[in-house]
Amino acid sequence: MIIKLTEFFRNLPKKQCKECGNEMEEQHECYGNTCNECLHIIDL
Question: How far apart, in whole angstroms, are the C-alpha atoms of residue 37 and residue 24?
């Protein structure tokens, strides 16, 4: 069975931090897999 590409991406699991396992907010320009808290980055 072939599914639509949009359906495939919609069904992917949420991205998780490799350090703490918390769900991450995905960014289109970033391939990182560590959350800002584990990287000690402060949001302004």
Answer: 10
